[in-house]
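fwd from M.: "can u put these together and see what the complex looks like"

so here's what she sent:
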Amino acid sequence: MKFGVVTFPGSNCDQDIIDVLSKIMGQQVENLWHKNHDLKGVDMVILPGGFSYGDYLRSGAIARFSPVMQEVIQFASKGGYVMGICNGFQILTEAGLVPGALLHNANRKFICRNVYLKPATSHSLITSDLDLNKALKIPIAHGEGNYFARPDVVKEMEDRDQILFRYCDEHGNVTAESNPNGSLANIAGVCNAGRNVFGMMPHPERAADPILANEDGLGIFESILKTALA
Amino acid sequence: MKFSAEINVMPLKEILDPQGKAVTGSMKNMGLAEIQEVRIGKHISLVVDAENEAIAHEKVEEACKKLLANLIMESYEFTLKAL
């Protein structure tokens, strides 16, 4: 499978994802520059974490209008797979490719620590191979990760099974205490109605290498390969 | 013709504004407990080149809707002035 990882000015997780996809998963990876006008025939685009364009105005707001994003939006509209992690998720919401927005964390702090995630559905490319009863330990690192959408939008997403991950405790219980940033309904990751665009605040690429002593994120990349190549 | 626009972007009322909340707390600490419900947004000023005020208004509307404000979490208002 051929992945495209976009680098915006200010991206800082692009190389981590490239390493996981190429060295751990053994896949072909193209690094796509934000000024690119073509996606070089990739099967899936990943928008990495970081602070694209310095997070000026709002996280992801400026990146959404970069040349490469016009290609990504077109690719997604034709059913192409796109995944945004952290800042990548913020860019996807700004582009309107997934519902909702990411507000400042409720406690106003930048939070960088491990949290637990409960996969909410198997019915998506990135969660297809995950055990729904196992809490995954995955790090977050963001100041604006407080997921928000209007109640009717959240209801529609729940009805359509578009919630992919919820923050939980280490036993998989979705509780108010295990919600690190104030996200509505503990939402940590979602997909669009077409189920080809995925966004999540936590960083699975920071938990997918044995050298990091945490491989809980690996299942997400394995899900992608198993399902896309099936 | 050139027009100047003064734009205010504010977090929606139903959304928690942690920045405003922290500043409200600070008001109390500095002895100004009378000051309440601080909310913090952005002020943006720009110049727009347009044939007339109606077109200038339309351009600023578009800028606000597409980029300057995220309508899921923010509202905007602006005034225009011929330069």
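replying to her w this: Chain A has a mean pLDDT of 97.
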